[in-house]
Amino acid sequence: MFDRIAGRYDLVNTVLSGGTDGGWRRLAARATDLQPGGSALDVACGSGKLTAELVRIAGGKGRVVGLDFSPQMLEVARRDHPGIEFLEGDALNLPFDDASFGASTIAFGLRNLADPVRGLVEMRRVLKPGGHGVVLEFVRPPKNVVGAVYRLYLRTLLPAIGGTLSGQPAAYRYLSDTVDSYRTPEELLQMAVAAGWSNLTYKGLAMGTVGIVSGAKMS
After folding, report:
1. Domains of the chain by range and CATH?
2. Which of 11, 23, 55, 216 is deepest in the core (most CB within 10 A)?
3. Is the pLDDT of residue 190 over 70?
């Protein structure tokens, strides 16, 4: 599915988010506390937009790697961000040694993992002591007027607009059909605790429909 939508993935995301998705990624990158010359791994990197933001924060130095399981997404990432290291790999079995990176991130990919807690365990495993892990993810719509409007948007406008722009309506029906499987902020934090993350924080964005979970590896 991701191979099929890779070519127009960024365009669709920008349109569907009203251009705000770039700001969400910038906030997620800053939440890593990555320093100039630091190292970072962006899991489920897709077209590499968050990966590139991590490179910017690291000052173009150090080692920043984007990893994804979709060859076509990686083709787009390498085309749009030449000079950045992109690898094909499995988020549940990261091909890196323990304590390889100062930060690890995943943006809008956690819900697509067959075992999200294992994915978080792997993100922690590759962190150096004191390193930060960050998850940027959609969360279950709140039970209020905003949540009701957002749920309607997900079920009607999102598949219509996304399907038209991408030419792959089934892919965007998948996104709307899975809205009830989105985790609550509390559930995301519980998953991070189960994976051994420490010093957890949560920041809600987009009127409570998007969230950033960040945590540290203490030892």
Report:
1. 2-140+181-216 (3.40.50.150)
2. 55
3. yes
* pTM of the entire predicted model: 0.90
Task: Report the mean per-residue pLDDT for the chain.
Answer: 90
Q: Show the 3-state SS of the chain.
A: CHHHHHHHHHHHHHHHCCCCHHHHHHHHHHHCCCCCCCCEEEECCCCCHHHHHHHHHCCCCCCEEEEECCHHHHHHHHHHCCCCEEEECECCECCCCCCCEEEEEEECCHHHCCCHHHHHHHHHHCEEEEEEEEEEEECCCCCCHHHHHHHHHHHCHHHHHHHHHHCCHHHHHHHHHCHHHCCCHHHHHHHHHHCCCEEEEEEEEHHHCEEEEEEECCC
- Does residue 43 carry a pLDDT above 80? yes
pLDDT digits (tens, 9 = 90+) for 79-97: 999 999 999 999 999 999 9
CA–CA separation, 104 vs 45, rounded Å? Answer: 11
With beta carbons less than 8 A apart as the criterion, state whether 24 and 125 touch.
no
* pLDDT tens digits, one per residue of 191-218: 999 999 999 999 999 888 899 999 999 8
pLDDT in tens, 10-38: 666 676 667 788 999 999 999 999 999 99
Q: What is the bridge-based pairing of β-strands 40-43 and 85-88? A: unpaired
Tokens of 52: 């590139």
